[in-house]
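Continued from yesterday's entry.
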Amino acid sequence: MNESLTPPSKRQRAIEAGARVFLRFGFARATMGDIAQAAGMSRPALYLIFCSKEEVFEAVVAYWIDDSLARIAAGLATRSTLGDKLRFACEIWCVEGLELALANPDVRDMTRLPAVRKSYVRFEACLTDILQGAAERSGLDVTAGDLARVMVSAMQGFKQTAQSSGEMRHLIAVQILAIERALASGPRSGER
């Protein structure tokens, strides 16, 4: 059977509806009734799939993360330099997220929820993979995981302070430039 003709499952419909509702209302104002209505199902039918709004939100975040990481993985193969790979990954993960937040101000209440915090662990692993070879070759006493953690922590701060996607891109570019130069220069005499 042609996949494109297969209707989405009730679970997938609920996740997609949840995404729309959370973007519109944020987490605090969204209700299971809103999600059920957007999914074209009754509240009891939604409760058969998800026990709570938190469960719907976790599924929505997982859906967003899987999509973002898949797009990052697919796009990395076409980028040759460390900087290009890092910029691409950060564009997908951070700039798109900021653009969503700027277009839907109520989503800011979602950034501190456990599902979102857990998502950064997966992005950190993605960055660690990108940075691995360069960190090993650099001769610096720093791991790819440490660099990735610094980047993710900075990105979280950038999302809180950037007023536009252009400003976010600039902050990311500065951070990536500093990391690239540090990795390329290696340790100075007497630093090891």
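--- second protein ---
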Amino acid sequence: MKAELLGVVSALILLNGAVMAAPPDRPSRPGLGTRYEALSAVKDSTAGVVGRLVAETVRTTPGFVNAAGINDLYEVAAGRIALQRSHSPAVRTFARRMIEAHTASTAKLKQTIRNYNVNAVLPDRVDARRRGMLDDLRGARPEHFDHRYIAQQVAAHKEADILMRRYARNGKIYGMRDFAIATAKTVAMHLDMAQALDPTTRSASDR
């Protein structure tokens, strides 16, 4: 894990200035748009690794609630972007399902907090990492969008899988553990769906 974390830190340092060199739709010189896409893809991949490491460190119920809530907010926002930008029927169907499922997940999480008097508050916005991922979706070139969205979805559901399974095993509140157990099953199904989509949504440059 230490070696993986070191790699993440190194990648973030390299990307810090390079990714922000130019907006994706207005490259300052020929070829920079493609370079931006490549850097953004690496940044999303790095964010996914960071997310899995972060999920491994969640120990408390408030921390679990915050992480689960942010995941739901990200999924709904990403799904709405996909509905606006994707021309793939399969991707749009998946995006609709993510919006519905994660809206329902938030409602169940709120109900669990109330039912078991959990001392935790759901977040009302995504964190900086997920905000960057959403910005990458908005800035992706049309021919790269589906690939970027599905790649993010695979990473996000791997992170959510770790989060849910860890709380299901070690969580202190019985009712919240039940929520995590049930949600873990849904997350696993969504991960399978995202991974099945991936071969059909490669970027144009990969074909």
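The chain is about 75% helix and 0% strand. The chain has one domain: 60-206. Will compare against the first tomorrow.
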